[in-house]
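Researcher: Hi, I'm a grad student and pretty new to this. My advisor asked me to get structures for two proteins we've been looking at. I'm not sure of the right format, so I'll just paste the first sequence and hope you can take it from there.
Model: That works fine. Here's the first sequence with its structure tokens right after it:
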Amino acid sequence: MTLDILGPSPVTTKGNRYVLLKHVYEGPKENVLLLLPFGPHLIAVYEDSTLIVWDIKAEEITAEIPFTNISISAIVHPSTYLNKILLGSLQGCLQLWNLRTNKLIYTFDGWGSPVTVLEQAPAINVVAVGLECGDIYIHNLKFDETLMKFSQDWGAVTGLSFRTDQEDPPSDLFQHTAAEGSGTGLHT
């Protein structure tokens, strides 16, 4: 895998205001499925469910974890969970891992459908879990407790995000998108 980064440089060469920085991170020959920037590290999950952690500056692998019992399908770093990542799987379970010790901390049973998306909620210990069946669960990791469930009936969940701007959307937004079949018809 090769990463090219273009950015401003305080030193100019031949009048250019930009310098090309190139970092090369060598890993397995399989395709990269997921990438996650993680502090001074870069985490990659490959199609064979091998998880590799690179030190960004040294361009060296600091950890390599092959997964044989699950196929990793989603990854997120839960806020305030130092050195930890949450993995979603095609088998439907979630696993919380400590990357400093390379140890599995906890396995969450899941909801009987492959995990497609994981997203950190604004609340501590809470993540959103999107499933292939169209269900979305808001789950408390600390207590392994589902807080709420949403469902969409038009396919797998492909993306999740949370708004924190405290503003309500225009009142006709949800009705308009629901009528066209391109969005969720939510009513408050």
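Researcher: Oh nice, that was easy. Here's the second one.
Model: And its structure:
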Amino acid sequence: MQDFKDLDDKQEIDISEMISKLNADQRRVFNRVTNTIASGKSLLRLYVSGEGGTGQLANHILEVLQADLKDVSLIIINKVSMISNLILMYIHLRLSEIFDTTDCDDDWFDQKHILLFGDLLQLPPVHEDPAFIQLTAENVRKYLGSLSATNLWITLFGYDKLIINMCQQGSYREYLLNKITINELCDFISNLSSDTVCLLPTCHMCNELNAAMLSHINKTTDYIEKINILLLTSLEYFIERVSVKFQMMNRIYEYIIEYYYLLSTFLFFLLLLLLLLHSNRQSA
């Protein structure tokens, strides 16, 4: 809090100039926040995403906090991925305690406007659940001393998203993140060495990339070797060998061929055994 008090001793901040430098994406969210606050018709509860035991306060501390926060109408919380569901509840409880608004209608966060920023895929809370997860019954009893607790994230907050990445503007990484298609990504990976490893944040993204790479391999192959294996049981197996640069694919192909030939041999000897048993029964 001392940091904010020190602002008075520094050079004056030109708010108009800061607003003029906002891009269209940022201006849209800024207008949404300011219009909601200016209208006074509803409280702002908004999460904006982007691409990366409460003890009682002493009376004199309450008085200091009440004086410092009396003109505050908007509270902004950044890096929300590191805020646990318990910490978010503590913030609400502490504000309600400071201004004694526990028994008011819509008393969440002392009826302050709350704006959350952050990428939920970045650093998670330490040893606790993210803010959007419902508090467990055990934690409610242990830390809040009550029978139940509201999921503040789902109940109160709306959602918006910033798309324009200001940190990576003009860089090669920005091109990769914003311009590249799945086909271009497959072309890029195909030109890498055979020991390249791709790390993805979710299983879904991994499955999508695997499917795209397999389709890409079939389109860019030098030749395709097709083999039909006809077993004695009249079952026909069709195997297609794709010529690719990754040696693992060739080894897998060889294992498949070996498996089917072993299976065919086994079935052949099994059929001979059955014929011999049948012939011996007829002779008996």
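Researcher: Is there anything I should tell my advisor about the second?
Model: You could mention this: The CA atoms of residues 182 and 254 lie 30 Å apart.
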